[in-house]
């Protein structure tokens, strides 16, 4: 079936060669194949799985998870599966501008997480969250400098949001298109978390500039020596 789809796309004479190459690579991608096999909605699910395996972000103490930019739902699925043994006691909320097909155990809110009305909807489920995670990306235009600025601005919004809604001892995970985030975001992590680091999951494509930041123990030891980002 994969070969038939691949052949169909590659025979489309109106398709740009770069698009055809992307589709061919995507179809053959081991994580795309694995996502279909494991019934994950996106290959990005494996990025979160890797992050959890390295950093144990879904600890036994985790009872609430907020997934910012959750659609199509891959990261929310990972959260429900890892926490399934305690799912009746766990609150999982997903927020996105784009709609999402329902996932059992996940409360979906359609809207912008920066909107005060949406924030009121979020706290109606939980005042504070043990994990706030974001696989969001800004709208890119292909201009590297502009895209990096947009990524940095989005991260600052995530950090500002986490400052209000992350629980004591909580964990923050977010994606960045910048190897080094803005000074404001760095200062937030250094001042409010006991530990933070930058991770490039194996499931993240080599040609992608994306990296992930993991910050643990919110309001922990200030400016701990365990910080290893800089």
UniProtKB/TrEMBL annotation:
One GO molecular-function entry: methyltransferase activity
Signal peptide (UniProt feature, chain positions): none
Domain Ribosomal RNA methyltransferase FtsJ: 40-218
GO process annotations (BP): methylation
Keyword Magnesium: no
Gene3D superfamilies noted in UniProt: Vaccinia Virus protein VP39
Primary subcellular site in the record, as a coarse category: cytoplasm
Keywords: Cytoplasm, Methyltransferase, rRNA processing, S-adenosyl-L-methionine, Transferase
This enzyme's EC code(s): 2.1.1.166
Name of the protein this chain belongs to: Ribosomal RNA large subunit methyltransferase E
Organism: Candidatus Hydrogenosomobacter endosymbioticus
């Amino acid at each position: 079936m994969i070969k038939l789809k691949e052949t169909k796309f590659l025979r489309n004479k109106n398709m740009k060669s770069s698009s055809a190459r992307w589709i061919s690579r995507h179809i053959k991608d081991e994580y795309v194949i694995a996502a279909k096999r494991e019934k994950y909605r996106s290959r990005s699910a494996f990025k979160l799985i890797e992050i959890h395996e390295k950093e144990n972000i879904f600890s036994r103490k985790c009872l609430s998870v907020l997934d910012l930019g959750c659609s199509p739902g891959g990261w929310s699925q990972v959260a429900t599966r890892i926490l399934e043994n305690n799912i009746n006691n766990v609150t999982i909320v997903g927020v996105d501008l784009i709609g999402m097909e329902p996932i059992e155990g996940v409360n979906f809110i359609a809207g912008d997480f920066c909107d005060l009305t949406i924030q009121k909807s979020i706290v109606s489920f939980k005042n504070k969250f043990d994990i706030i995670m974001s696989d969001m990306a800004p709208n890119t235009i292909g201009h590297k400098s502009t895209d990096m600025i947009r990524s940095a601005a989005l991260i600052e919004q995530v950090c500002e949001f986490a400052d209000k809604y992350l629980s004591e001892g909580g964990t923050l995970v977010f994606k960045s298109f910048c190897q080094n985030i803005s000074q404001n975001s760095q200062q937030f992590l250094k001042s409010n978390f006991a530990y933070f680091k930058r991770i490039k999951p194996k499931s993240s494509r080599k040609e992608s500039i994306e990296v992930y930041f993991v910050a643990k123990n919110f309001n922990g030891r200030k400016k701990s020596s365990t910080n290893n980002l800089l």
